[in-house]
Amino acid sequence: MTDIMWDSEIYEKAADAKTLASSAATPSIADPRQLRNTLGNFATGVVVLTYRSGDHYYGVTVNSFTSVSLDPPLVLVSMQRTSRALTYLLERPFAVNVLGDNQLGTALHFAGKPQDAHLIEWVGDDIAPRINGSLAYFQCTPWAGYDGGDHVLVLGRVMSYGQQDDTQPLLFYRGRWSALAQEAGGARSERSRS
Ligand SMILES: Cc1cc2nc3c(=O)[nH]c(=O)nc-3n(C[C@H](O)[C@H](O)[C@H](O)COP(=O)(O)O)c2cc1C
Q1: Which CATH class is domain 2-182+185-189?
Q2: Is the CB of 62 under 6 A from ligand 1?
Q3: Strand 66-70, strand 73-80: pairing
Q4: What number of other Cβ atoms are within 10 A of residue 185's Cβ?
Q5: DSSP assignment, residue 100?
Q6: How do the domains of the chain map onto residue ranges?
Q7: What would the pLDDT profile of 115-169 be if each residue is shown by its tens digit?
Q8: Which of 11, 53, 62 to mutate to test the pocket of ligand 1 (most atoms within 8 A of CB)?
């Protein structure tokens, strides 16, 4: 993976994560920071959930997205109970925008670090507003919400979806933003020619 940049108050520094991961001592289950850092070894993509309220469009950056079911088509996100978005996601359509590696500013914008508002190019005439140029999107209606401790598990039923073939994903790993290494693709195509 190629590092894009590091800046997050929400997730702990990668240096801490590395120290903890290589530490001989058994991490304490009672220490949420250690647990969160160790969970950060699971590399993910990054999505922004977008929804409409009145005349305004809103979004929230999330990496707990996962697919659940094909029949019916269901996807899941785990939302902090303190999230302003939670109430809306449980009661109205929302879009899951899978971010490309050129959308780091968008990820930061909807994670509480507002960037230049012109950065966001909306597609407003869909089931829910979505972000133009995303790697993929899933238009959802709320299906169910389940207790997830200090989070709520929100299931959405996929009503429509789409993807762009010429974009690479934005990744999140050990508290760092990443992208797929270019060499990996190059090496693959090199091999397929021989
Ligand atoms: C990479 C990354 C992943 C995140 N994943 C989640 C998540 O899965 N669930 C969640 O509730 N918040 C997550 N957050 C935090 C929210 O983006 C952040 O708290 C946001 O400001 C909440 O906005 P809201 O209060 O308007 O809903 C994540 C933040 C980052 C940077």
Answers
A1: mainly beta
A2: yes
A3: antiparallel
A4: 11
A5: B
A6: 2-182+185-189
A7: 986 789 999 988 999 999 999 999 999 999 999 999 999 999 999 999 999 999 9
A8: 62
Relative to the CA of 111, which ligand 1 atom is closest? 17
81 Cβ closer than 6 Å to some ligand 1 atom: no
DSSP secondary structure, 22-63, as one string:
H-SSPPPTT-HHHHHHHHTTS-EE-EEEEEEETTEEEEEEES
Which has more pLDDT, 86 or 28?
Answer: 86
pLDDT band at 18 (very low <50, low <70, confident <90, very high): very low
Name the amino acid, one letter, at 128: A
Mean pLDDT, rounded, of the chain:
86
Counting ligand 1 atoms within 8 A of each CB, the residue from 83, 84, 176 with the most, and so the one to mutate, is 83
What residue owns the CA closest to ligand 1's atom 13? 62
